[in-house]
tRNA pseudouridine(55) synthase (Caenorhabditis tropicalis), 359 residues
Amino acid sequence: MKTVNREILVSRIRPDFNGTLVAVPYKVRNIDGYLKKLSSYSGKRPTLSSDLQLMITFEQDESDFSDLQFLQKEFPNDFRVSKRNRNSHQEAASSVSKQQLQQVTGRINEQIAKCLPQSPWSEEKDEPREPGNSVSEKVCDILKKQFGASDSRFVTSGREDIDVRMLGTGRPFVVELRNCRITSPVRGLNYLETLKAVEKTINSQKDIKVNFLTRLPRDIAEKLSVGQEDKRKQYCAYCYSILPISDEQFATARSKIPLTIVQKTPVRVLKRRALLDRERTVYTMDFLKLDDHHFEVRLETQAGTYIKEFVHGDFGRTRPSLAELLGVDQGEVDILELDVEQVDLEWPPSIKQSPIKFR
């Protein structure tokens, strides 16, 4: 039920999505991909007149528990442990049936499905976006109000997909406030108490937390955007391989590090980014085998590396990929969860705080 649940959430968040594939169920699109692979192996093509029928069953339960937690939180009366199970100390169900999900489909609205991107959704769509539903807005709106600014600019050290957690000390960022009418609260040493109070206000919102708010002179703040490709980032990826992987395969892959990879602009972002070949470096890589099919890989890479594509290969657009290094076919390895553990950048920098001159 994972894919059904996720497609419902996406449809509530972005009702403006359209196109030929939107109405096609995920399992049908998936089967279409397998048919092409079957044709390449067998040399036969699918036809409705054939007497041979194949039944393809998809099983993927890694996210069932987290999906169930979401449904139990939003619909506690529909997804709760029965008295019989509680009294007999039986373990609660870890998945949801199609019938159960259908009962709440109509009640999953935009508010429940809402997620928090780093930046506002693209404004190219016809319908106006919902204001205040991004990290940058939740930070900048409060700062603009506090200091009477007419506008702001939110700059970060990179960005991730919305389903990637930012751990460690968080993502370095800087906010430029323009045409501020209120500046006395950050003059001299007043800024210490002022920014502590602002940080508390920002963190009173759900889904967001900032640390170590401070003031920076312009020349220091601009360094955040300089030399982006020289920075390093540390990741931890929870991965799954269709084929079993041995300790020897992990050792072979590890022996190839450090290495330079070439990545074409990924298929998933090609619509909004130029088609380019980018060279990136993977500096370190280590594995933790969980079972024959599941493992964690910790990576330190050059900033700007597409980690998901490095793992599964993106139909051969990333070479070499982790799938290749492990000796399995393209697309046989994929990421189930991805975390950024650290951005190799001291931020805010340790500088001698002197009075900021306001123009």
Remarks:
- The longest strand covers residues 277-289.
- The first helix runs from residue 2 to 13.
